[in-house]
């Protein structure tokens, strides 16, 4: 035996009680910390909060009555009185845009709500149960997805008659498969988790497992998808309203303002530009916010 | 805990259990192939074997978390196999499981309080306050602070998480708990804490445990009886002391010799049986005795017939032809054979 330097180590005795753990950050605060560092996300959120505030306080902040105009002053360019000019009926474009933000944002929320209402339960059922149920739902899903979204929406509005509610219902139905895909995919992976098996071993029924164990654990991708979809819905609403299939006059949405100003674009381009920029900024803000959510949720709360 | 079973009705009875997985192209994988055993009330049965021996699948099949292909499982007087999933759910109150990896077995989106409350919510009609009291009690049992109820799993260490998993399994005072390698994912100092905790729970409750592990040292500590699995079959069962000190199956002897001795000098000079090769694929198990391809004592008969369970001196059974053919051990330990000099093939590496 060669002699070795004597090892000195303190033997740790296993004890019954453990020292209290250092206070670890909770999931929500980790998310906030990461999100705050994401400048683009914070700016996007700021823009959206601004748009929502504008929508909420529309009657108080708009300088003119949105649906009343002076025909003699139609199609004017920007001036001190009409910052963004007037439309073909001499109505103040700024006031109409401000009021239209209510319609556009609400419409987007409605469409996304419809998409969630259809897509979420079907996606959960499809992903959790699998088998033939999954097959039936997903084939139906594929069929719906194979249509170009806007064309399908036009067909649905054509069947139901043009109105904002119908248009949003149509867009909700058209986008439901996207939600369904995301939910199904996430549910498929979550159902293989040991904690789902553990819930089964505890004796939880399928509704409880889906509601209490699967749904909370797919929330991150769902939140991301929902945020991005809100932007997409604004765009679709604008498209349908541009074509006259959405909101009906005299009510305005960003899309219908753009559509109405389009024929006069060479005379007063201001309206088209302002409406177009508003739509773009709103859509971009939702998309960037969605990206920021995804980055901040990051490693899916499974940090160990 | 070390009391041997006398004339009690077994709490868990497993008869000729088979679990087959379809692996495509008509091929079938016999993960568990004709396993029978029982666990008495308040008893702990250790189930050991190397990875792929089917021990975890056996534990899952007992709880119907894996679907048995054939065979019967009884919990007390109730047959677990053959129940529809709706009928099975009330029975889950009586049988529970602790999984190997405490990092994946707790739902990251639920607080500890909610996870412990869930079994009570599903199976009892207790009021909120009563359930709260039971949750606190359960945390006391596993020696965790009651203040932890509002925290999430990611705030805890592996050992703490496993305590929570144990608390969740024990909260309904089940008749049977399957522990599927509950300490293998933990580091050694934490392992001893969990083992001590389980020993304490064994003493205080009437719960029966099926303790699955590949660490024989741990199994020896916690279980009164041990069953050894190889390639989906039981090769030896018996009182733990007998199985470890006088193994009657060459595979058990080989497993035993892999337990490190906490004394460097003895560890260096001990006899070790080193098995050649790998466990054969369960898709194409060897004919006759499944261990014969790696067995140093393999005889002609081993390839022809599957060995029957032979009663062993000191309790239990071993499935080995050595007891009836060749050296005719007739229920004695295989150890003298291993250390003997009459072997033609070198068996023991010194």
TrEMBL record, chain A:
<protein>
    <submittedName>
        <fullName>Peptide/nickel transport system permease protein</fullName>
    </submittedName>
</protein>
<feature type="domain" description="ABC transmembrane type-1">
    <location>
        <begin position="101"/>
        <end position="290"/>
    </location>
</feature>
<dbReference type="InterPro" id="IPR025966">
    <property type="entry name" value="OppC_N"/>
</dbReference>
<dbReference type="InterPro" id="IPR035906">
    <property type="entry name" value="MetI-like_sf"/>
</dbReference>
<keyword id="KW-1133">Transmembrane helix</keyword>
<comment type="similarity">
    <text>Belongs to the binding-protein-dependent transport system permease family.</text>
</comment>
<feature type="transmembrane region" description="Helical">
    <location>
        <begin position="105"/>
        <end position="129"/>
    </location>
</feature>
<dbReference type="GO" id="GO:0005886">
    <property type="term" value="C:plasma membrane"/>
</dbReference>
<feature type="transmembrane region" description="Helical">
    <location>
        <begin position="272"/>
        <end position="293"/>
    </location>
</feature>
<keyword id="KW-0813">Transport</keyword>
<feature type="transmembrane region" description="Helical">
    <location>
        <begin position="149"/>
        <end position="176"/>
    </location>
</feature>
<dbReference type="Pfam" id="PF00528">
    <property type="entry name" value="BPD_transp_1"/>
</dbReference>
<dbReference type="InterPro" id="IPR050366">
    <property type="entry name" value="BP-dependent_transpt_permease"/>
</dbReference>
<dbReference type="GO" id="GO:0055085">
    <property type="term" value="P:transmembrane transport"/>
</dbReference>
<feature type="transmembrane region" description="Helical">
    <location>
        <begin position="40"/>
        <end position="61"/>
    </location>
</feature>
<keyword id="KW-0472">Membrane</keyword>
<dbReference type="InterPro" id="IPR000515">
    <property type="entry name" value="MetI-like"/>
</dbReference>
<keyword id="KW-1003">Cell membrane</keyword>
<dbReference type="Pfam" id="PF12911">
    <property type="entry name" value="OppC_N"/>
</dbReference>
<keyword id="KW-0812">Transmembrane</keyword>
TrEMBL record, chain B:
<dbReference type="InterPro" id="IPR013563">
    <property type="entry name" value="Oligopep_ABC_C"/>
</dbReference>
<dbReference type="GO" id="GO:0015833">
    <property type="term" value="P:peptide transport"/>
</dbReference>
<dbReference type="InterPro" id="IPR003593">
    <property type="entry name" value="AAA+_ATPase"/>
</dbReference>
<dbReference type="InterPro" id="IPR017871">
    <property type="entry name" value="ABC_transporter-like_CS"/>
</dbReference>
<feature type="domain" description="ABC transporter">
    <location>
        <begin position="12"/>
        <end position="256"/>
    </location>
</feature>
<dbReference type="Pfam" id="PF08352">
    <property type="entry name" value="oligo_HPY"/>
</dbReference>
<keyword id="KW-0067">ATP-binding</keyword>
<keyword id="KW-0547">Nucleotide-binding</keyword>
<comment type="similarity">
    <text>Belongs to the ABC transporter superfamily.</text>
</comment>
<protein>
    <submittedName>
        <fullName>Peptide/nickel transport system ATP-binding protein/oligopeptide transport system ATP-binding protein</fullName>
    </submittedName>
</protein>
<dbReference type="InterPro" id="IPR027417">
    <property type="entry name" value="P-loop_NTPase"/>
</dbReference>
<dbReference type="InterPro" id="IPR003439">
    <property type="entry name" value="ABC_transporter-like_ATP-bd"/>
</dbReference>
<dbReference type="GO" id="GO:0055085">
    <property type="term" value="P:transmembrane transport"/>
</dbReference>
<dbReference type="Pfam" id="PF00005">
    <property type="entry name" value="ABC_tran"/>
</dbReference>
<keyword id="KW-0813">Transport</keyword>
<dbReference type="GO" id="GO:0016887">
    <property type="term" value="F:ATP hydrolysis activity"/>
</dbReference>
<dbReference type="InterPro" id="IPR050319">
    <property type="entry name" value="ABC_transp_ATP-bind"/>
</dbReference>
<dbReference type="GO" id="GO:0005524">
    <property type="term" value="F:ATP binding"/>
</dbReference>
């Amino acid at each position: 035996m060669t002699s070795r330097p004597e090892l000195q180590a303190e033997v740790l005795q296993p004890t019954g009680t453990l020292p209290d753990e250092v206070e670890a950050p909770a999931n929500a605060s980790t998310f906030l910390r990461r999100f705050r560092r994401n400048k683009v996300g914070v700016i996007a959120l700021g823009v959206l909060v601004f748009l929502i505030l504008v929508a909420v306080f529309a009657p108080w902040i708009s300088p003119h009555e949105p649906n009343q105009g002076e025909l003699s002053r139609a199609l004017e360019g920007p001036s001190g009185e009409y910052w963004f000019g007037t439309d073909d009926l001499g109505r103040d474009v700024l006031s109409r845009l401000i009021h239209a933000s209510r319609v556009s944002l609400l419409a987007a929320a409605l469409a996304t709500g419809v998409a969630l209402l259809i897509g979420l339960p079907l996606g959960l059922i499809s992903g959790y149960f699998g088998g033939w149920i999954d097959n039936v739902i997903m084939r139906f899903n594929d069929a719906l997805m194979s249509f170009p979204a806007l064309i399908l929406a036009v067909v649905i509005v054509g069947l139901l008659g043009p109105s904002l509610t119908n248009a949003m219902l149509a867009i909700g139905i058209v986008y439901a498969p996207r939600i369904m895909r995301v939910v199904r995919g996430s549910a498929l992976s979550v159902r293989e988790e040991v904690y789902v098996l553990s819930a089964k071993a505890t004796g939880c029924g399928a509704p409880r497992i889906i509601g209490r164990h699967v749904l909370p654990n797919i929330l991150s991708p769902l939140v991301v998808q929902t945020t991005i979809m809100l932007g997409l819905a604004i765009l679709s609403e604008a498209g349908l309203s541009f074509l006259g299939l959405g909101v009906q006059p005299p009510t305005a949405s960003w899309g219908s303002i753009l559509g109405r100003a389009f024929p006069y674009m060479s005379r007063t381009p201001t309206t088209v530009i302002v409406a177009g920029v508003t739509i773009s900024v709103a859509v971009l803000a939702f998309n960037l916010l969605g990206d920021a959510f995804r980055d901040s949720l990051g490693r899916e709360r499974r940090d160990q | 805990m070390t009391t041997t079973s006398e004339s009690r009705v077994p709490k868990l009875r497993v008869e000729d259990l088979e679990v087959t997985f379809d692996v495509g192209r008509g091929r079938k994988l016999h993960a568990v192939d004709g396993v029978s055993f029982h666990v008495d009330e308040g008893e702990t049965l250790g189930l050991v074997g190397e990875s792929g021996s089917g021990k975890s699948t056996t534990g899952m099949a007992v709880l119907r978390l894996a679907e048995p292909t054939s065979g019967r499982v009884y919990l007390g007087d109730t047959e677990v196999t053959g129940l529809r999933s709706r009928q099975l759910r009330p029975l889950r109150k009586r049988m529970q499981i602790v999984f190997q990896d405490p990092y994946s077995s707790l739902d990251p989106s639920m607080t500890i309080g909610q996870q412990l409350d869930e079994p009570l919510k599903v199976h009892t009609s207790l009021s909120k306050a009563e359930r709260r009291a039971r949750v606190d009690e359960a945390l006391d049992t596993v020696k965790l602070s009651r203040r932890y109820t509002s925290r999430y799993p990611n705030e805890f260490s592996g050992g703490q998480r496993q305590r929570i998993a144990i608390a969740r399994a024990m909260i309904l005072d089940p008749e049977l708990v399957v522990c599927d390698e509950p300490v293998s994912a933990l580091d050694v100092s934490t392992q001893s804490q969990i083992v001590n905790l389980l020993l304490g729970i064994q003493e205080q409750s009437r719960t029966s445990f099926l303790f699955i592990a590949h660490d024989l040292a741990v199994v020896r500590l916690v279980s009164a009886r041990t069953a050894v699995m190889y390639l989906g079959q039981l090769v030896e069962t018996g009182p733990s002391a007998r199985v470890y000190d006088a193994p009657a199956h060459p595979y058990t002897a080989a497993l035993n010799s892999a337990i490190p001795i906490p004394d460097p000098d003895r560890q260096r000079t001990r006899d070790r049986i080193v098995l050649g090769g790998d466990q054969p694929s369960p898709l194409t198990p060897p004919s006759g005795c499944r261990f014969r391809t790696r067995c140093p004592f393999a005889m002609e008969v081993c390839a022809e017939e599957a060995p029957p369970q032979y009663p062993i001196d000191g309790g239990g059974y071993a499935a080995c032809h050595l007891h009836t053919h060749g050296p005719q051990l007739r229920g004695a330990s295989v150890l003298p054979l291993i250390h003997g000099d009459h072997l033609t093939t070198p068996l023991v590496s010194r």
